[in-house]
Write a structure and sequence with these properties.
A hairpin with a 4-residue loop joins strand 1 and strand 2. Helices cover about 30% and strands about 35% of the residues. It starts with a helix and ends with a strand. The longest helix is centred in the last third of the chain and has 16 residues. It has about 140 residues and is of the alpha+beta class. The radius of gyration is 14 Å and the shape is globular.
Length: about 140
């Protein structure tokens, strides 16, 4: 799927605040508002290597910290904020249908604002991958 088509598909996911697809080489395939820094990209790529580090340090999107409380590869997710202003974050690793540059995996990162919760957003993310990009694993 072409980058512009994929961006349009991401934008159609109305429950997601921001989203980004990137490779295990750290290259951004398509970005819908995340504008991740290079060190943040590298952390996401390595997030599956060590549960303790990932849960302990959490995730960052442009220096905004998210606690990580679920580590169930190929899914990792968490949240920031409180019951009135919370935002969730989720990362899904998948084998791409069409590799861009010889990578083994690609990743979909999403954020979602309350009242959307992980019980709704994470299954949407898995379905998005299965339908548009590749198989989560």
């Amino acid at each position: 799927m072409e980058g512009s088509d994929l961006l349009n598909k991401l934008k159609q996911e109305r429950d997601w605040n921001m989203s980004c697809i990137f490779t295990d080489n750290g290259s951004v395939v398509v970005d819908n508002g995340c504008n991740l820094k290079s060190d943040e990209l590298q952390f996401y790529v390595k997030a599956y290597n060590d549960r303790d580090t990932t849960v302990g340090e959490g995730f960052f999107v442009n220096d905004v910290h998210f606690d990580v409380h679920r580590f169930h590869p190929p899914l990792i997710y968490g949240r920031r904020g409180g019951p009135d202003d919370g935002e969730g974050i989720a990362l899904c690793r998948f084998k791409p249908k069409q590799a861009v540059g010889g990578e083994t995996y690609q990743f979909l990162l999403i954020t979602y604002l309350l009242p959307i919760v992980s019980a709704k957003a994470v299954p949407q993310m898995v379905k998005f991958c299965e339908t548009n990009t590749g198989n989560p694993e």
